[in-house]
Amino acid sequence: MADPLSVVGSAVGIVSLGIQVVHSIYDYYTGLKDQHSSVGHTLRKTDHLLGILNNLQSRLKCRSFRADETDLVVNVQSAVDQCNECIQELQNEVDKFKMTPVEGLCAAAHQLGRRLAYPIRQSTLLKLNEDIYELVVHLSLALQLLEHSTIDRITDSVDDVRTVLDLVRSSQVSFEIREWLKAPDASTNFNEACKMKHAGTGMWFIKSSSFANWLHQSSSFLWLQGFAGCGKTVLCSTAIQHTLRHRRSAKDIGIAFFFFTFNDESKQDASAMLRALLFQLTSQLNDTPRALKELRDKYCPGTPPEQALLDCLYKAVREFREVYILVDALDESPRNKYRQSVLECIQDIRAWSQPGVHLLATSRDEPDIRRRLEQAGCETLSLRNTGVDKDIASFVSSHLRADPDLSEWQEFFDRIEETLIQKAQGVFRWVECQLKALLTCPNSEYFLDQLLESLPETLDETYTRMLQNIPSMYKHDARQMLAILSCAMRPLTVPELIDALATETSENPRFNSKRRLKSLDSIQKLCPGFTEIDTHPGNGVQTVRLAHFSVLEYLESERDAQNGQVAFFKLCRQDANNLMAYVCLTVLLEPGLAECEQQIESIRSQYPLVEYAAEYWPCHLQEGKGSDLVEKQVMRLFLETNGAFDTWAGIHGPFGHFDSKWYHWSSPAYVASLLGYHSVITAMLNEQCGDNFGIDEELLHECDDEHQTGNTALYAAARNGHKDVIQVLINMEANAECLVPGQDTPLNLASDIDPKSIVELMLLYREPMFDTQHKHSPLSAAAENGHTGIVEILLDYMPAVQVHRDYALLRSSTRGHQDIAKLLLDVGVNVNFEDNGDTPLTLSSKNGHKAVIELLLESGANVNGGSFQQPLAAASREGHEDVVELLLDRGADVNGRVDAWTPLAEASRGGWKHIAELLLDRGANVNGHSTILVMTPLVVASRAGKKDIVRLLLERGATAEWDGLTEFYPFVEKDDREAVQTLLRNAYWAE
């Protein structure tokens, strides 16, 4: 066999040649990048390849190989050898760039033209990219082989996990934005997945061509699909760790991940995913991006809609050269509740067509998921393969020998291992259950034989047997625990679950402190194998959850339901939520709470479940649709005089926290209206309730001018669209036009949320007062939110003069609602109506709504209108190149007004090079500036640190004045010598 040193020397030689050739290509295209935008992608890929080559060369030169690593050396050489042909092809391309002598002036000129055109031909760039991609794959494999001896140790190290957690918990984003965005903490899921990972498992995936392609191929999308319990989440966590290692310290590579979680409501919808991804990526930037600040300014204190989050995420992604997004367990987003919007967001991210965005998703193979992901162009990798089988074998062998409680079976380890591996069929979860069953098996060969010979064939059979083994005296408590864990809105802490189990749920419910379990072990004894304990990595708080998503599916399915013992435990999600609402309300009605004399912290410490109960009982009631027993408890909470309602409002209440302003106005009638409890409102109207619980006159007719809340009962009902409550209150002649300055009327709120029947009801019972001077009138609210049907209704009711004074066209143009804009224009609304200097055309241009822009222009909009900012400047600032071109074609003044920033200055500030080029090509004054803000585009670009724009403006004749130093300061402060030298070379030296 060849000497390892000579083999390594040969590999180093090939890599060195590769560095020389690729460097030549990189240098050549660097000279073209400002002249031809089409070479930018090739240049970035070439730079990435150079980094890999230099890294591999360094490792080969520094690495000393042991005598037992001959196979490793040969495999590295094989991977490098496969690069030889590609390197030679790249060398040939370099040769074609060079001039070769020819005879004759005409021939020389002809050859020069071909030589200059050749490097930027599409076919040339395509061939280069193909060779670069192939080199990246082979060289990355060589790097991975070299790291093989340490890769497992690094992957599973505490430092590696901590690095991931630090990356996504950065404090770059301000506290105010973090508190407002409320991004779910995906690091807790990552941490738990890492704990479940057995050393060395998952490496088949990391070493696969699928993972290598995903890491290095442009705009890659990989879908890992497998059946329940095959280890998808653990594989996702492994991929996150190795993606981090691939990133190393490169600040221009972003990583973000999210784990959908069946037992945590806050981690199940598209908004949660987008907020988590957005927070993680922006945390990796040096400064909070402007887009995120603007998002908060626009939507705080509320949560932005999904489209706004997507738009902001897109802008954050563009701050990086490469972004890796990993999303686990798409199937744990409820199918009939959130999943469709989640999959649509995945498709939207793919539709960005950003070369540097790499997307990885995991899930079971379900029809809706497969259809959507295949439409988005994913590569599919099935987890039913030999790699998973080897991981299971490694897991079983290690677990048997590492668990001290299994040491008594040591003489039978080989037999146990062989049997479990043979029957696992790729399901880690099945193996875990059998190992737990082994712990309870009496220690004799006879009982071991019985256990191994009667192993359940499937996961379902395993769960059936586990339920049958629960002692009869525990069955009712076990069922209550399974039901509670199946519907909990967030993971319950150990003390919270203990109190939930201590609540008796008979027809005479009560909290019984004697039923409190004394330890965590007692919880696990109720349902052995069905629960897991998670420990938060930061605060050490322990929470309890169902052990696996397959447990929830099994309990809610009809499978094995004909078995009487099993049928007792089967769950209906609606019934489970009713049970949990019943438990929560019973805790809140506990007499002991009143004895704490409104000392909130004392209540929380003595009754751990009370905070969860106060926050989530309305959610469980809504999900469960209610029952007679639950309805009775709701009535008690609102109508009894024992202080239970006040205690609830003090602990949490409907507004999420205790606040004296809201507390004063949150009467039972107001809150019942807010939550839509028709039966409670009706009961309050009943004379038998007494004066204490009737609806106060002030809640029907008066506004809270002092606190600026506008909190009438009708306002509360309209806020959430509760038609039946609104009907009752309107029958009592509740004031529908109560308006506190800066707040909405009930009619406005109804227009906001689009229940047409509610708006019609209010208009039918009351003669509406349409205050169009209030910018958020009912018509504006409906127009802004895209509620076409309500706009049509309101236009029928409103006098023409009020329609023409309304801000509706501005609102619909801002949001891009073309159909509503057309309705308003058809009834004669002023197409050039202004608000603070902005016209509908300015606002639609700012937000890039091209269809609305075309409609407005066709309807006579002034293309240069707007006393604050003109449409062209607004579109240039936000980077909407297609809109800029449209406005220029329709006659927009390329230099804008003399008293505002020019369109070129706006484009320069945003760093939109293509727009700046377009404006300059159309005649923009490169040194133009306003009479008020005396800053040229060059000054603006310099202050914003946009070097590409600075270079472009200088090439187009911009003047840098040394006398003022304005352009130089930002780059001097950053020690950016290249930029300073560029400015100095072009500086005008004033006398």
UniProtKB/TrEMBL annotation:
<feature type="repeat" description="ANK">
    <location>
        <begin position="867"/>
        <end position="899"/>
    </location>
</feature>
<dbReference type="InterPro" id="IPR054471">
    <property type="entry name" value="GPIID_WHD"/>
</dbReference>
<feature type="coiled-coil region">
    <location>
        <begin position="73"/>
        <end position="100"/>
    </location>
</feature>
<feature type="repeat" description="ANK">
    <location>
        <begin position="936"/>
        <end position="958"/>
    </location>
</feature>
<keyword id="KW-0677">Repeat</keyword>
<dbReference type="InterPro" id="IPR056884">
    <property type="entry name" value="NPHP3-like_N"/>
</dbReference>
<feature type="repeat" description="ANK">
    <location>
        <begin position="709"/>
        <end position="735"/>
    </location>
</feature>
<dbReference type="Pfam" id="PF22939">
    <property type="entry name" value="WHD_GPIID"/>
</dbReference>
<feature type="domain" description="NACHT">
    <location>
        <begin position="220"/>
        <end position="377"/>
    </location>
</feature>
<dbReference type="Pfam" id="PF24883">
    <property type="entry name" value="NPHP3_N"/>
</dbReference>
<feature type="repeat" description="ANK">
    <location>
        <begin position="836"/>
        <end position="868"/>
    </location>
</feature>
<feature type="repeat" description="ANK">
    <location>
        <begin position="804"/>
        <end position="836"/>
    </location>
</feature>
<feature type="repeat" description="ANK">
    <location>
        <begin position="899"/>
        <end position="931"/>
    </location>
</feature>
<dbReference type="InterPro" id="IPR027417">
    <property type="entry name" value="P-loop_NTPase"/>
</dbReference>
<dbReference type="InterPro" id="IPR007111">
    <property type="entry name" value="NACHT_NTPase"/>
</dbReference>
<dbReference type="Pfam" id="PF12796">
    <property type="entry name" value="Ank_2"/>
</dbReference>
<dbReference type="InterPro" id="IPR036770">
    <property type="entry name" value="Ankyrin_rpt-contain_sf"/>
</dbReference>
<dbReference type="InterPro" id="IPR002110">
    <property type="entry name" value="Ankyrin_rpt"/>
</dbReference>
<keyword id="KW-0175">Coiled coil</keyword>
<protein>
    <recommendedName>
        <fullName>NACHT domain-containing protein</fullName>
    </recommendedName>
</protein>
<keyword id="KW-0040">ANK repeat</keyword>
